[in-house]
Specification:
With 427 residues, the chain is mainly alpha-helical. Helices cover 74% and strands 0% of the residues. It contains 18 helices and no strands. Helix 1 (4-23) runs antiparallel to helix 9, helix 3 (38-49) runs parallel beside helix 6 and helix 8 packs antiparallel against helix 12. The protein is globular.
């Protein structure tokens, strides 16, 4: 039977991602409803993504230095709810731009904090002689939480509620997530620990220590590929609702449920993550996953029909493993308690915030010209990431390990030691 700390952690992921489930699938439709064109939607999403350049690094630095990350999450989620509700005060573009940017600034700090809290709690379990819970078994509850609002909102839309209903729904769930954060166990060590020598500056500036790890080998090549993929997928997420409703001709009430198809597939992949990574290793998982991303983007660009637009959701599961599951776990294997939160925050700043901002900024004018053109652009960027990964990770550098060794080497599933992945060619 699952103990209370693990129940609280899974509930936190469920509620936090449920906020995203209320907002992300529908926000472009909300912007269209207040009269924004594709170029302006691209700009507002790009500039709001810049919040990821500021917020995660600041809050994760505070979490690693002096403040309780659970309380930071509570404050951020409360202000998220307030920012969402403020969006309804007027339809002015300037006001919506400001309030949505504020919401993004606050909300993007929650995910790296949440991941850092999870990894810290698992480390405390190891120190207490208890088995840690693999990350994908915790993170899957976020996927489940993302699905639930789509069914509620579908019912509301079917009964005549406007698209603006997503805003109070997201605010209500954010407040529930805030209350849930008070049930989380303390992620900090009970007593100061004597640990391995730390990188220079880790004691006084955890963000600087995290930067040295993130920009060192072999993480640099890995992160460069993730940067390109995030650029491409920012375009996908920004304009997919409009692609469904305006290019393919599907009614807006079905948008959330169509996105849910991909998340259901995602849950299956996430539950099998440990087996997949042991069977394939990080390199092959990344190559296959990015190839699937290229395929789904090419299908959307070349065949703008309802069967293709819906059917490509079946490729969503491995996409999530590549972008949302493998990177946080892989990063955590290169971190310790001195800069665990900061490493996640710095990754979110550069590989998510900057990348998504650039991707949306480029995609906006392209979408003004052609919604299918957005997906040709995104497919090209993903293909570049695939080539980078293929060139960077040499498969023939070392003999294939035995099955028992492979599980230790490539088993990213929250192992205690970093995986022995194949070194980049540039090393």
């Amino acid at each position: 039977m699952l103990n209370p700390p693990m129940r609280a952690l899974k509930s936190q992921y469920f509620l936090t991602y449920a906020v995203m489930g209320c907002v992300v699938p529908f926000i472009s439709l909300f912007f269209r409803d207040i009269g924004l064109g594709n170029t302006l939607i691209g700009y507002i999403m790009a500039l709001s993504s810049l919040a990821m350049v500021i917020s995660p690094v600041i809050v994760t630095f505070l979490a690693d230095s002096r403040l309780d990350p659970r309380r930071i999450m509570a404050v951020a989620l409360t202000l998220c709810a307030a920012a969402l509700l403020a969006m309804l005060l007027t339809r002015s573009f300037a006001w919506v731009f400001f309030t949505y940017g504020l919401y993004t600034l606050l909300f993007v700090s929650v995910a790296p904090l949440q991941d850092g809290v999870n990894f810290s709690i698992q480390q405390r379990r190891r120190e207490a002689g208890q088995p840690p819970v693999d990350f994908h078994h915790i993170r899957v509850w976020g996927s489940i939480g993302y699905i639930v609002p789509s069914f509620l909102l579908f019912w509301l839309f079917r009964h005549g509620f406007p698209i603006q209903s997503i805003i109070p729904a997201g605010a209500a769930v954010a407040l529930l997530a805030m209350l849930s954060s008070f049930l989380l166990p303390n992620p900090k060590p009970v007593e100061p620990q004597i640990s391995a020598p730390q990188p220079p500056g880790a004691a006084s500036m955890p963000t600087l220590a995290a930067a040295r790890i993130l920009l060192g080998r072999p993480l640099l090549v890995f992160c460069t590929a993730i940067f390109l993929i995030q650029m491409a997928m920012a375009s996908y997420y920004t304009f997919y609702p409009l692609y469904l409703t305006e290019r393919v001709g599907i009614d807006k009430q079905w948008v959330g449920l169509i996105s849910t198809i991909g998340v259901v597939v995602e849950i299956g992949f996430m539950l099998c993550f440990g087996r997949i990574i042991r069977a394939l290793g990080l390199r092959n998982l990344m190559l296959i996953g990015v190839a699937c991303m290229v395929l789904r983007l090419v299908l959307l660009a070349a065949f703008p029909t309802a069967p293709v637009a819906i059917g490509q959701q079946l490729l969503h599961g491995i996409h999530v493993l590549v972008l949302l599951v493998a990177p946080p776990v892989f990063l955590n294997q290169h971190a310790d308690d001195r800069y665990r939160h900061s490493l996640q925050g710095l990754f979110a700043m550069i590989m998510v915030g900057v990348a998504r901002s650039i991707g949306s900024l480029i995609a906006g004018p392209i979408a003004h010209w052609s919604l299918t053109g957005v997906y040709w652009y995104a497919a090209g960027v993903c293909a570049a990431a695939l080539l980078l990964l293929f060139a960077a990770f040499h498969e023939a550098q070392a003999p294939q390990p035995a099955p028992a060794a492979r599980e230790q080497q490539a088993g990213i599933a929250d192992a205690a030691e970093p995986p022995a992945i194949t070194q980049p060619a540039s090393s």
